[in-house]
Every structure is written in C-alpha cells, then in structure tokens.
Amino acid sequence: MAIEVAVVGTGWVGGIRTQAAADNPQVSALHIAEIRPDRLAEMKALVKPKSATLDYKELLANPAIKAVMVSTTPEGTHYQITKDSLLAGKHVLVEKPIASTEDEAEELIDLAEKKKLILTVGYSQRFNPRVAFIRKVIQSGEIGEPVTCLSSRNVTVSLGNKIRGRTKLSLAAMEATHDLDFLLWCLAPRKPIRVYSQVSGKYLAKTHGPGAPDHQWIMVTLDDGTTVVVGAGAILPVGYPNYCQTWMQIVGTEGTLSVDDSHHEVTLNTRKNGIQYPMSSMPGEYVMDHTFAGPMATETNYFIDNITRGKPVMVKPKEARTVMDIYIAADISAERNEPVSLPRNARLSDLK
Ligand SMILES: NC(=O)c1ccc[n+]([C@@H]2O[C@H](COP(=O)([O-])OP(=O)(O)OC[C@H]3O[C@@H](n4cnc5c(N)ncnc54)[C@H](O)[C@@H]3O)[C@@H](O)[C@H]2O)c1
Questions:
Q1: Which tens digits make up the pLDDT trace of 215-224?
Q2: In angstroms, what is the span from residue 183 Cα to ligand 1's centroid?
Q3: Alpha-carbon gap, residue 302 to 293, rounded angstroms
Q4: Residue to mutate (ligand 1; options 8, 12, 55, 79; most atoms within 8 A of CB)
Q5: Which residues constitute the domain of residue 104?
Q6: Same-domain pairing of 239 and 102
Q7: The model's pTM
Q8: Distance 78 CA to ligand 1 centre (A)
Q9: Tell me: the pLDDT tens digits for 322-350?
Q10: SS3 assignment, position 332
Q11: Is 80's C-beta closer than 6 angstroms to any atom of ligand 1?
Q12: Would residue 39 count as lying in a domain?
C-alpha cells in the first residue's frame, strides 16, 4: 500500500530525496518543508507536492504522513526535528549525523524503540555498489581473514568551506563517518576497541581561523586485530562542484581488493572550464530525469519501499551510535595526541 511521505529541508540532498520520492510509485502523496521561501517555491514547481510549508510542524500534525526524511542543516537541527517526528508517530530517515551528542542520539534511539517506529540514518555509501561489493567479498571469505582496510576520501574546498561554515563538528563526524560506518558494516561482527587520530591544517585556517583542519586521519583497531584506516580531507581544488575522490584497499590473508572510487571514468574537458569529473559527488546526482548517478536515490527508494512493505531497514540507529563513539574518540585522540580505548569513559563534553 502506498504511503504519504514528507521531506524536511530541501537543500542539496533533501532536493535529491524529494525528487526520488516524487518519482516513487509507493508514494501516494509528497509533502515538503523548507525555511528558505525561494527554495521552497523552486521545489514546489519541480515536484508539485500535495503540500509545501515553511513550518515542518504543520506536516507533523498531518496523520496521513507516515514517514519523514530529515535533511536539514545546520546539523544541530537533526535532533529536535527527528524527536518531533517520532513523537508525532512518523518513521524517520535522518541524514548523518544522527544527533550532535551521545545523549541526544540515545534519546532518539530509545524513543523510536518505545514507539515501534523505524529510525534510520543516511549512510548512503552502503548503497554505493562498489562499497556493497567490498562487504560481499569480505563476508564471502574470498580474500581470507581481513588484515587491514583503508579508505581515503577527499572532497573539494567548496564543500570544506560549506561544512566548516555551518558546524563545529569535525571531519571525522562529517565526512569520515561514512567510511567508518561502511567499513564496520563490511567487517561485522568485529567491534572497535581502540582509536588514534591526527589532524592537519594549513589551508582552511586562512579562511576559518587557526585550528580549522584540512584533513583528519583515523586509525581504528578491531577486537580481532584488524586495523582500519580512514582519511577525510576537504581542500581539493574545485574541478567540479562537490567532487569526491576515494581510494579503498582491503588486504586479507588470501587476497586483496582495491576500489578506485575517484570518478575519473567520465572526464569532460572544455576550453571554458578545463577538466571536470561529472557524476562525481558523494550522494550522486540526476543525469536526466530518468537516471541517477550515485547511491542516494536508491537509498531513498529503499527507505520508502521497506516502510511500505513493513520490512526492517538495513542501517540501524545503534550502528550510527557506534560510529559516533568512534568519531568522538577520534576527536579526543587528536586533541590529546594519544590513543583512546573503547568503550571509553570520556564523553563529547570532555573536548575543549
Ligand atoms: N549522505 C550523503 O552523501 C550526504 C552528502 C551531503 C550532505 N549530507 C548531509 O545531509 C544534510 C543536508 O546537507 P545539504 O548539503 O543538503 O545541506 P543544505 O544546506 O544544502 O540543505 C539543508 C536545507 O535545510 C533547510 N532547513 C534548515 N532548517 C530547516 C527547518 N527547520 N525546516 C525546514 N528546512 C530547514 C535549509 O534552509 C536548507 O535548504 C546534512 O546533515 C549533511 O551532513 C549527506
């Protein structure tokens, strides 16, 4: 049975989710909320929703709406809108990060459990076929026991500026969170036991002041001795808006898997703009109305389809809570220049 769905925050990624939901035959009616009147008008003209409002609470008061996607910035808004949505009896997909603090995340997880509602987090990279292939290969045992896994991700400075301008959350929380999530998913049931992290910054500090990191490396040790290394950087020159370049390498006792997710397979070179890499953003983008390059449309449709069918979703909020533990440990480690053991005693509030 088709359901009515709402998107709160229709900026970059909320715009993608809105368009995907509008095309989904399981959606009987679409509703949107956006506080920027110009963007609300733009999305209204594009997808012709059943209702469009500046105030998301109007949507929550509508009992016909069964599911809400929370795609707002700044990230500090996620907790309250998600909490309000759960209290109103809606299933929720919230973009990462699930919340700003451990207490907030735990409260949301408990609330969803109590109200028997689906709460899931936008870890879109699990819907990237290359990432899913890593999980398939590791779980099949084809490369033996995993020994070490690397994911090195860099995005453009335009994204670095956008992120830095709206949140104090680190590159671990904002960018590496995806890689930490999917590598733990690929390596399940192994658990993280120790985290070490360092940051480096020379470029963004010129715009955002001393201490603004350009890059963060995070090393995580798992309980079976596997090491995971994740790097997140945000100062690549702008060759294409929101360009993202990632290299991944999994070394096992019986083989190795390398994944080039640098998006160099399509190169557009023009006199006006030089070399560009279309279809290279992390969530993906519509190429034409009927085709989407990237994981986010699939992830959006998966959320809607599973709710419609009454099936559980893949990304559990407790997994997002574990990832939060790791990135907070990484930030504490980088600040103190020492490894942090998990489970840790220190809370986010211990950071300066
Ligand atoms: N999964 C991914 O690959 C991926 C990629 C980029 C960003 N993200 C995450 O997605 C979220 C959105 O990022 P973005 O880049 O689209 O941001 P954005 O700034 O482009 O869009 C956010 C929108 O939310 C709106 N908004 C803020 N408060 C609101 C409210 N109370 N009610 C209604 N609308 C409100 C803003 O006006 C804005 O248009 C962030 O949490 C970000 O971390 C995920």
A1: 999 999 999 9
A2: 24
A3: 16
A4: 12
A5: 3-122+311-315
A6: no
A7: 0.96
A8: 9
A9: 999 999 999 999 999 999 999 876 666 66
A10: helix
A11: no
A12: yes
Give pLDDT tens digits for 74-107: 999 999 999 999 999 999 999 999 999 999 999 9
Q: 17 CB under 6 A from ligand 1?
A: no
The protein residue whose alpha carbon is closest to atom 44 in ligand 1 is 95
Q: Is the CB of 75 under 6 A from ligand 1?
A: yes
Domains identified in the chain, total number: 2
Nearest atom within ligand 1 for CA of residue 56: 32
* Closest to 179 (Cα-Cα) out of 145, 211, 196, 154: 154
Mark whether 73 and 210 lie in a shared domain: no
Length of the chain counted residue by residue: 352
CA distances from 101 to 95, 107, 163, 186 (A): 15, 10, 18, 25
Q: What is the CATH number of the domain that holds 330?
A: 3.30.360.10
On whether residue 351 sits in a domain, the answer given is no
Condensed to tens digits (0 to 9), the pLDDT of residues 196-216 reads: 999 999 999 999 988 899 999
Contact 305, 171 (CB under 8 A): no
pLDDT at 132 over 90: yes
Output the pLDDT for position 350: 64
Q: Does the Cβ of 283 fall within 6 Å of ligand 1? A: yes
78 and 31 in a single domain? The answer is yes
In this predicted structure, what is the pLDDT of residue 166?
84
